Structures are given as C-alpha cells and as structure tokens.
Amino acid sequence: MLGPESPLMPREFPRGVRRGAALTLVFAGVLVTASATGLLPRGPAEPDQVPAARAAAAPMADRDEVARAAAEAVADGKSAVDAAEEVVSRSGDRWGAVYDKGEYEEFAQALDGAYTGVGLWARRGPDGRVEVARVQRGGPAERAGIRTGDQVRAIDGVSIDGRPVSEVVALLRGDRKGASAGSAVALRLQRGERAWTRTLRRARLATEAVTVRKLDGNAVMIKVAAFTKGSGEQVREAVRDAPAGAGVLLDLRGNGGGLVSEAVTAASAFLDGGLVATYDVHGEQKALYARPGGDTDRPVVALVDGGTMSAAELVAGALQDRGRAVTVGSRTFGKGSVQMPEELPGGSVAELTVGHYRTPAGRDVEGKGITPDLVAGKEAQERARTVLSGLGTGS
C-alpha cells in the first residue's frame, strides 16, 4: 500500500522509471535506508565482530564522476541535476538518485516526520480503482468527511482511472506544480452510488509513524509505518508501557524503511545489546549494535510482507536471527543497499549506493528479502495472533 501523503519515496524504485515519477515516490510512503541525516554511524566497527562481507554485485555510481559531471554542467550554464542524473542512470546504480536543493530539503523535512498534503493514504482497490486506505486524524481529508474505502476518481478534473498510484500521488501533492501548504486540490470521490467533488486545502502535517492498540488476549499491536525521526524511541516506549506479560505483535507490513538509526533503536526495544546488522561502505566493514536494556522476555511476533523494505527488513532480520521474534507473512521486498548523500556543485545532492547490509547471521537482503518463519497471505494477522498466543506470556 502506498500512502500518497506519507513522507518519503522508495529509493527502492527501479532506475528505469523516469525521474519525475521517482521524485514523486520519494514522498509516496516508503523511505530509504540511507544516511541523509547521519543515520549511519561514521566510526569503524570492531573488526572481530563483523562477518566478512561478500563482494556486492550490484552496480554503484562513481561519486567523483557524478560530481565532475555536475561541475561541468554548472560551468556551461546547464542543469547539474540532469547531468549528474545521466551519470547515475548510466552506471546502473538501481537506487541512486539526484535532487535539487529544494527537493532534498523537503526530503530531509519528511525524515523529521512532516509533510505537505491532505492527510489521506491510498491503495489499489479490488476493482483496480484507487481508494482511500486511511485518513489522518485532524487533517483536511477528515475534516471534509472523506472516509476509508471512498474511491478517488479524479483530481483537479483529471481522471485517475487506470493510472499508477505514483501518478495519483503526484496529483494529490501537487508536486509538479510546486504546490505548498494552503494550495487547493479538487477531489472527485465516490462512495457506493454517491459521487461528489470536494476541494481541499493542503496543509503541513505530522506523520503517524507508530500507532499502538491493545488486542484481545493480553496482546498489544505496534504498527510501524515508517522509520522517521523519533519512531524508534516510540517503539521502545510502547513496549515499556505494554501491560506486564502482554505479547507484542510488531506490524512491519508496508513499511518501506527509513532512518537506519531509528530501526536500530526499534530493534533495541526487544534486545539487550548485541548485533543488529553489519554493512559495508566503500568496502570498509561496519556494524550496528542494539542499545542494552531492551525487553528480552516478552513474546514477539513480527508481521512482514512484500512492502516491508530496507530498514524494516533490517529489523525483521535482526529479530529473526537473534531468535527474538517469530516472523509471519510473506517474503519481504529485498532492498539491502545503503545510500549516502554527496553534495554536488550548484547545491544539488546525489544519493548514491555505497554498500550493502547483512543480518546478524550474515544473510544478504538485497534481491532476496527476508523469508518469514511462517508464510501466510491474507490470513497473516490471524495466524500471527495464533502464534503469539501459543508463545505464552512474558515473565
């Protein structure tokens, strides 16, 4: 499920997609395992604690070549972004991307958990049409009376029937018009036989990265939609606040990743220190460790699916390898590459692949994903509840 109003886009989107659509998807509900705001530690890991890495087969763009192309374009009065993007595309770096200064500033703000939109998430419905998946409390969409399940038929008079969700995202956010908070967007909606048009004003909203609800049978569901700033500590607080002995259903479905530091903090909620993942940056081996003091007794089941990507896969893999959670659902996306930003001449920014991460057991995630302990489809949540009840209660 893509959330057109959620903060970030998947760097997981293949390079074959034209740049405009990819930029739109930066804000489409999935995030990148990268280092945009210092999310990866800079210091070297202890060499005796990091498994030897296998050579990464995935192509990587040469950062010096990218910077040189941008500088030459600036000197010639041309677009540094277009020149750098051409080099990245030619390199075959599947997850590399180039942004102008304004785009990257917006991306950084989204990492902090804020975005401009109308406060609704969208998905492809059973009939192939785009429908509302969730409405943010207090946002323009909720105030306009829009509900989950309403179909979106047109935006600003343009029919969206048959269009990719990425294009719907672009129209909703007004990205191609440079729309800001306060700008208007007209939605043509349908609910059963009723069809109507409503004009909304976009607003600056805060994301709801972590939601918590109590379940029947002494259990708590912690849903992590994305690893934006502060989300890791929210997970830790949710675990600490859970009733004594209650099991935790950690829902990572549809989580496109985000800040690695937040993912490590989230994993720390269930671990008492130890390895979370290893990764390489230009061949130098590093490691990520959990904070001590996590809850190691409470039973945990992690829900995953094909929309579980990047940093979310890092969490699922760590809890699985460390024997801390039973994973239920379907195989995850398989985005195990690491991107880091490089400032280019003219103020643009290139985020280029610099390495790959592995689970504590040394498993590569790139192109393979995480296979859950129990494979389940539509009944995944029900199966996960059954497994959680069978694990008993924490001591």
Task: Give structural notes.
This protein has 395 residues and is α+β, with helices and mostly antiparallel strands. Among the domains are: 115-206, Roll (Pdz3 Domain); 210-336 and 356-390, 2-enoyl-CoA Hydratase, Chain A, domain 1, CATH 3.90.226. The protein contains ten helices and 19 strands. The chain has helices at residues 19-25, 63-75, 80-91, 101-111, 140-143, 165-173, 231-241, 260-268, 311-321, 380-390, and strands at 97-99, 114-117, 120-124, 130-135, 151-155, 158-159, 184-191, 194-201, 203-206, 210-215, 219-224, 247-251, 275-281, 284-289, 300-304, 326-329, 337-343, 349-358, 374-375. The strands form five sheets. Strands 10-11-12-15-16-19 form a six-stranded mixed β-sheet, with helices on both faces. Strands 1, 13, 14, 17 and 18 form a five-stranded antiparallel β-sheet that branches. A four-stranded antiparallel β-sheet has the order 6-5-7-8, covered by helices on one side. Helix 1 (19-25) packs across helix 6 (165-173). The longest helix is centred in the N-terminal third of the chain and has 13 residues, at 63-75. The radius of gyration is 21 Å and the shape is globular. The two termini are 36 Å apart. The relative contact order is 0.17. Residues 1-56 have low confidence and may be disordered.
